[in-house]
TrEMBL record:
Xref: NCBIfam families: mem_nucl_MnuA
Region ranges (Disordered): 116-253
Signal listed as a keyword: yes
Basic and acidic residues biased stretches: 119-128, 216-228
Signal peptide: 1-23
Keywords: Signal
Full protein name: Uncharacterized protein
Keyword Signal attached: yes
Organism encoding this protein: Mycoplasmopsis mucosicanis
Gene3D superfamilies linked to this entry: Endonuclease/exonuclease/phosphatase (3.60.10.10)
SUPFAM superfamilies tied to this protein: DNase I-like
Biased composition (Acidic residues): 156-203
Length: 598
């Protein structure tokens, strides 16, 4: 079989590069089998075939799990190997302009067989913009460029944003994925058939189960005098279309060294994390893992939910201060812990407390009117039951702390941070909770709570003497596709939601192979801008060799062994999911404005 390999580059109006690798094979038949690898502007790679190759996984993880430290990819060539596999050669480019050494990825020939892409001749301009990558060579033809292919390349249709549109055949699957050939599957064995939605065990009534920096807009909402930021347009750069099933994770694939996005002194990194029933007597390994993730991501303030013990924040503070001292960094961590949640209407309560841990040299809590630094929402602004049901209050009221900035040049700046863990997703079998009116897969309780966060914002302004820099983060338990409904109030309110629900999934599947829902959200209402809205994908904890700060963890097996040394309990499923959390942390960088004194 005579194979020809072509690498084509497309430029989009977004000033980023979309790359298509087309590997075609021909024989005596008239049909050509081809595969297209699509690199979109956020540097995620999609393959329009029935399986996912090592190429897609590697570049996907490089771009996302390094928090965009690697901002571009330079393809240097393709080589056909004697067994009809191909080797794609590339360099990764950091945001400093520095390039890595040339890397190579082997793509099996069996993974390159797929249907021919859609060919459309309607856009001649697209065809003219295609260029071949120099250096694509055959093994026995080193040094000879194949940058001018003899065969006329296919024209790949693009959508209105300049992004590549997969062909109809590959896009026809509603879930976006066809079962892999067991012989070619590079992922962990085991079906996730029943794991499409991992359900949080939030309470007895519910069954267990980057951002583009917003620029100031033109509209003003009285009495607010500052301009409200415009809603970000697809923060991750994806064009809209059918919801695709997210890629699986190969937990055994190594990702090298982790490096958090650099942060300058004019930014504060605000994070939140549902730490899955973390109690005072939890295994030491759990606290060490959580502290390690917080430390390497360079968070400044972290909101913690699903705390079962009031001493947990102090445990984490001690661990973090030890790490800071060990690494000769001048940060000092402290904690502010909520009162214990009351059980609502006699209902069981999954969480005991909420808390913020923070770098005391960066920010400090401000004392509110009642001489407290932290307060629960008191329902004084009312509660709308827009989506049905009779419960007219939060099960776990949002916890509020106003922080003052201590960084030089920005000491007049403050902001108010609200944290919550909304009611569990859906309705329980024996629960009195009704289904949410007009919102699929949601119970009325969590849907109403999401809608009433605007009331919490109104209340926050009053108790903070009019602070207009308001941030909410937390586990909302709102399913993918429902954000625009239950958080529809944000648009009129002048708030934005930086995380893209289609592409940033934060709840873990329990079988080590991926993520299921975008439950964790950020709501930003401020004249100050933001950047770097993201998540740390928790399964990468065992894929990077430098995350865990207390012992060498170079594989999933290393982590399992380490957890077993501290915990007599054995898990039938993931030791990341059960041994750390069933959620990934989320974060974004608040860009400080020294002139924003209120």
């Amino acid at each position: 079989m005579n194979r020809k390999h072509k690498l084509l580059i497309f430029s989009s109006l977004a000033t980023t590069i979309s790359a298509i690798v087309v590997a075609s094979c021909s024989n005596n038949s008239k049909k050509q089998d081809t595969v297209s690898l699509h690199l979109k502007p956020d540097k995620k790679l999609f393959i329009s075939e029935n399986n996912l190759s090592m190429l897609e996984k590697t570049l996907f993880e490089f771009s996302n799990n390094t928090n965009n430290v690697y901002v571009d990819i330079e393809f240097t060539g393709i080589t056909k190997l004697p067994n009809n596999d191909i080797e794609l050669k590339y360099k990764l480019i950091k945001n400093t302009g520095e390039k890595t050494e040339e890397k190579g990825l082997i793509i099996k020939a069996s993974q390159l067989l797929s249907s021919e892409p859609t060919v459309q001749d309607k856009n001649k301009k697209q065809q003219d913009s295609k260029q071949s990558i120099p250096g694509a060579t055959e093994p026995n033809n080193q040094g000879k460029s194949s940058s001018e292919p003899k065969d006329k390349p296919p024209i790949i249709d693009e959508d209105e944003d300049g992004f590549i549109v997969p062909d109809d055949e590959d896009s026809s699957d509603e879930e976006g994925e066809v079962p892999l050939d067991p012989d070619d599957d590079p992922y962990e064995p085991g079906s996730d058939e029943n794991d499409e939605e991992d359900i949080d065990s939030d309470d007895s009534s519910t069954p267990p189960n980057q951002g583009i920096k917003p620029s100031p807009g033109e509209k003003q909402k009285p009495p607010r005098e500052k301009q409200k930021p415009s809603r970000p347009r697809n923060p991750n750069g994806h064009s809209k279309g059918k919801n695709k099933k997210p890629p699986k994770v190969n937990i055994n694939e190594k990702l090298g060294k982790f490096s958090a996005t650099p942060k300058t002194e004019d930014k504060i990194r605000l994070a939140s994390w549902n730490v899955k029933n973390y109690g005072n007597d939890a295994p030491v390994s759990k606290g060490q893992a959580i502290a390690s993730v917080i430390y390497v991501n360079n968070y400044d303030v972290v909101g913690l939910t699903e705390l079962d013990g009031d001493n947990v924040p102090n445990i984490l503070v001690d661990l973090l201060n030890d790490l800071e001292k060990k690494n000769n960094r001048n940060n000092t961590w402290k904690a502010i812990i909520s009162d214990k949640y009351d059980a609502l209407n006699g209902k069981g309560q999954a969480d005991g407390y909420a808390a913020f841990i923070y770098k005391d040299n960066i920010v400090s809590p401000l004392v509110l009117g009642d001489k407290k630094s932290g307060r629960f929402y008191d329902n004084s602004e009312g509660f709308e039951t827009k989506y049905g049901g009779s419960v007219n209050q939060f099960n776990r009221p949002p916890f509020l702390v106003q922080f003052g900035v201590k960084t030089p040049k920005y000491q007049k700046v403050n902001f108010t941070y609200m944290l919550s863990h909304l009611d569990g997703p859906g309705t329980g079998k024996d629960s009195p909770e009704p289904k949410a009116n007009g919102v699929k897969k949601q119970g009325a309780y969590e849907a109403n709570e999401a809608w009433n966060i605007k009331k919490v914002f109104d209340w926050a302004k009053k108790i903070t003497n009019g602070d207009d820099d308001l941030i909410f983060q937390g586990d909302t338990n709102i399913h993918k596709g429902n954000q625009s409904k239950v958080f529809g109030w944000t648009k009129d309110y002048g708030a934005v939601m930086p995380l893209d629900e289609d592409n940033i999934l934060t709840s873990l599947k329990a079988n080590n192979n991926g993520y299921s829902e975008p439950y964790d959200k950020i709501i930003h209402y401020s004249n100050m801008n933001y950047t770097n809205a993201t998540t740390f994908r928790l399964y990468d904890f065992v894929r990077y060799s430098n995350i865990f700060q207390y012992a060498p963890i170079n594989s999933y097996e290393d982590w399992v062994k380490y957890v077993k040394g501290y915990n007599s309990k054995r898990y039938s499923q993931s030791y990341v999911y059960h041994g750390i959390s069933d959620h990934s942390p989320i974060s974004y960088d608040l860009i400080l404005d020294k002139n924003d004194a209120h």
